[in-house]
Design goal:
The chain is of the alpha/beta class and about 350 residues long. It has two domains: about 1-120 and about 290-320, Isopropylmalate Dehydrogenase; about 120-290, Isopropylmalate Dehydrogenase. The protein is built from twelve helices and twelve strands. The protein has helices at about 15-25, 40-50, 70-75, 80-90, 105-115, 150-170, 190-200, 230-255, 255-265, 270-280, 305-320, 320-335, and strands at about 1-5, 30-35, 55-60, 95-100, 125, 130, 135-140, 175-180, 205-210, 225, 285-290, 295. The strands form two sheets. It has a seven-stranded mixed sheet with strand order 3-2-1-4-12-11-5, sandwiched between helices. The chain has a five-stranded mixed sheet with strand order 6-7-10-8-9, with helices on both faces. The radius of gyration is 21 Å and the shape is globular. The two termini are about 40 Å apart.
């Protein structure tokens, strides 16, 4: 299994990216990682931390930054670490997929222009996985790739999200909910009201109706459908809340005196596990569903742990052939609607 990694994507690149790649290959006997980036920068980091032969550096002379405008950057920086990784993945089927923690807009644009959209899918969507209080998983589609959507796009997001949950986590007949400002039918704006009617009539998904944002982490659904604006706000709000909880806990322990410090010491393994669960920089990434190859967007502040998990995510998606699964579900949906 060969995975491509954008060596210069993310706030902590290239060091954390390289360390994440090393962590991934050391935990798997059948994995090779190919890192795209400036060879004089990437290769010394690899050699200083790894003596094996399962990491290869592919020279790429340009870097797409977060300040770059996506369309211009993809068009003008064709030898960037991001674009080169995607191009290699498109041209060589031996590569399972691509991981990048770089500019989200540029990664989406490059995925569309270089990797290409699956025929019949109106728009790709960004699909991060959220933890829930009952230990299960939730995917939110879309979480930022498409700010303005039509009902057709949300229908496709529902299909792809449902397929993703089955392929990635083995959930049969995933519960699909529509994020809205109330659970009753008829709530929301024109988009959500029209989408509700369309999703209700789709026999290919297990639609359970409207769901509210406050219930997302309580396992109210397996797939939460929304436009990219709503999804991104929900994602960022959840991330901010998680960071605030961690800081509030630290402040309470710090100011709580000896009893609080002793209690924190006793609870240290539990608190460490909670931090790992809440800290998005340590989690796997969001897949761009709807393109012809597997593309995983890692969080911009990803650590080596997160990069490793994203690489493992690509492997699992490839093993379960999620792209073919989406194509099959789309074909079945068409047949049922004819």
């Amino acid at each position: 299994m060969k995975v491509l990694l954008d060596g210069h994507g993310g706030d902590n690149s290239p060091l954390e990216n390289v360390l994440g790649a090393i962590k991934a290959v050391e935990s798997s006997n059948d994995l090779e990682v190919y890192i795209t980036g400036k060879i004089e920068i990437i290769e010394p980091i690899v050699k200083a931390n790894y003596s094996g032969s399962k990491i290869t550096v592919i020279d790429a002379r340009e870097v797409i930054t977060n300040e770059d405008k996506p369309t211009i950057a993809v068009r003008e920086k064709k030898d960037s670490s991001m674009v080169k990784a995607l191009r290699l993945c498109r041209e060589d089927d031996s590569f399972a997929g691509v991981v990048s923690a770089g500019n989200t807009g540029a990664l989406l644009t490059a995925s569309l222009f270089v990797v290409k959209r699956i025929k019949g899918i109106s728009r790709p969507c960004l699909t991060p996985t959220w933890p829930t209080v009952d230990g299960e998983k939730l995917v939110v589609v879309d979480s930022g790739a498409n700010v303005d959507c039509k009902p057709l796009q949300l229908m496709h997001f529902a299909l792809m999200g449902s397929c993703y949950m089955t392929s990635m986590y083995g959930v049969k007949h995933p519960r699909v909910g529509l994020i809205n400002n109330g659970s009753e039918k008829g709530k929301g704006c024109e988009l959500t009201r029209e989408t509700y009617d369309e999703l209700e009539n789709m026999s290919d998904i297990n639609f359970i109706g409207n769901i509210e944002a406050r219930d997302l982490l309580f396992g109210c659904a397996d797939v939460a459908v929304c436009d990219g604006f709503v999804g991104n706000v929900a994602l960022k709000s959840t991330e901010g809340t998680a960071i605030a909880i961690i800081k509030l806990l630290k402040n309470s322990i710090k100011n709580g005196g000896l009893r609080a410090k002793i209690g924190a010491l006793l609870l240290k393994p539990t608190l460490k596990s909670l931090k790992s669960t809440l800290d998005v920089s340590e989690q796997a990434g969001g897949a761009f569903l709807g393109v012809e190859k597997i593309v995983v967007k890692a969080h911009g502040s990803s650590t080596a742990t997160s990069i490793c998990k994203c690489i493992e995510q690509v492997v699992k998606l490839k093993e379960n052939d999620v792209v073919a699964g989406i194509k099959n579900v789309l074909a079945q949906s068409r047949g049922n609607n004819e």
